[in-house]
Design brief:
The chain has about 120 residues and is mostly helical. It has one domain. Helix content is about 80%, strand content about 0%. Helix 3 runs antiparallel to helix 5. The protein is flat and about 45 Å long.
């Protein structure tokens, strides 16, 4: 039963996130605010997917949680070019990519938050 709950919650997050993005794409007119909202829904889904993959979830360490949240916010800001005046940010985005590898980082930050 615990395996069903441990693996069922990430699956439910995937399905509910996909449904939420589908609703946004089909029923809201795309503009900057809706695009930002859509991206935040996707980021939260990645983060909580990683969070629920961790089966321990009992650590009270605040430092790791703060670092995970700060890195998630930093990566999201980098996706929106909010730090384009800093020279090394372009190199980091080029190295990690804006989609493929950053998705894994969001999932890892959620896993780290729960650890």
């Amino acid at each position: 039963m615990s395996d069903t709950k441990r693996l069922g919650l990430p699956l439910a997050i995937i399905l509910l996130g996909a449904f939420a993005v589908w609703l946004i794409d089909n029923y809201l007119v795309m503009n900057a605010v809706v695009g930002f909202f859509r991206t935040m829904v996707i980021v939260f889904c990645y983060f909580f997917f990683g969070y629920y993959l961790n089966k321990k979830k009992r650590s009270n360490a605040v430092f790791k949680k703060v670092i995970a949240i700060l890195l998630t916010v930093l990566l999201t800001c980098m996706r929106y070019d909010l730090f384009n005046t800093i020279p090394f940010v372009g190199m980091i985005l080029h190295t990690f990519g804006t989609e493929g590898f950053s998705i894994m980082l969001y999932i890892y930050f959620g896993y780290l938050f729960a650890d």
